[in-house]
Design a protein that fits this description.
The protein is mainly α. The protein has eight helices and three strands.
Length: 284
């Protein structure tokens, strides 16, 4: 399991290296702000991909005497770092685009290499986004899921730059700077979503969907008369669940134990990599 996560994360790193280098070279040769903004975007993608690679290597390490809940939150921390890097990207793109539009210095040299590098970028991002998304869902990896979301937005931002190049080819050079602003808007959108999710997990916000699943599961057990004090937190791919249940006081200790085991098994089936703690109480 860990091997597959590491493999796709490493493939993403090599893809980011190739895209960053090719966009940077073509961006400098053509003077296209759209391509240069994409080069910077891909450069930060490379940093994010490297962080993700190391985070998935660490996140699946088992709990130890210093980390009782495992190392899963390193994935959420890496997602937060990705958000910060994306915001830095936005600040630079917006500054450069506005400066060019105000000064009128929007002329760029469009060559067939401009189209090749952007179209290649779109094809590579489509494939690696799908690959990362598939493995993220399979292993419930938030770091890979963040990477998949990140690179799926790269497809749209590259499409915006491609549109700017086509317009510039007809003499509408301002469209390149406008396309760069379009990239910034897309990046801001994904930054907000990534950052919010990462902060929610780091602050132990209870996941609403998981809460509903646990409540529905308990309602299916007629032996459970009442439940309360439910606490749920996530760390990377792991989910920790704790709650109290009220049972018939005439049940034997063995029956209570078997019921709790059955509930834990059922929750483990519907919530991947979950650790459940149940405190039974006599129902008055």
């Amino acid at each position: 399991m860990v091997g597959e996560k590491k493999r796709v994360a490493l493939i993403s790193v090599f893809a980011a290296i190739f895209l960053t280098g090719s966009k940077l070279v073509i961006g400098i040769l053509t003077g296209s702000l759209g391509i240069l903004s994409e080069a910077l975007h891909s450069g930060l993608d490379l940093v994010a991909a490297v962080i993700t690679y190391f985070s998935v290597r660490v996140s699946d390490k088992p709990a130890d005497e210093h980390h009782h809940f495992g190392h899963g939150k390193i994935e959420n921390l890496s997602a937060l770092v990705e958000t910060i890097l994306l915001l830095i990207t936005c600040a630079w793109i917006i500054y450069e685009a506005v400066s060019r539009l105000i000064s009128g210095q929007t002329h760029i040299e469009v060559t067939y290499w401009s189209y090749i590098v952007i179209i290649t970028s779109i094809i590579i991002d489509i494939n690696r986004s799908r690959m990362l998304s598939r493995v993220a869902k399979k292993h419930n990896s938030q770091a890979l899921e963040a990477d998949a979301l990140h690179f799926s937005t790269d497809i749209w931002s590259s499409a915006v730059v491609l549109f700017g190049l086509i317009c510039a080819n007809f003499g509408w050079y301002f469209a390149d700077a406008a396309a760069a602003l379009g990239v910034a808007i897309i990046v801001l959108s994904v930054s907000y979503r990534l950052g919010k999710r990462a902060i929610d997990v780091l602050l132990d916000k209870a996941p609403a969907n998981t809460l509903k699943i646990v409540e529905q599961t308990l309602l299916n057990y007629s032996e459970v008369k009442h439940f309360h004090s439910m606490k749920i937190r996530t760390a990377g791919a792991d989910t920790f669940i704790k709650f109290n249940i009220h049972l018939d006081p005439d049940l034997t200790l063995r029956q209570v134990h078997e019921l709790c085991d059955d509930i834990e098994h059922e929750l483990g089936r519907v919530i991947a990599r979950s650790e459940v703690y149940i405190h039974p109480e006599p129902h008055e």
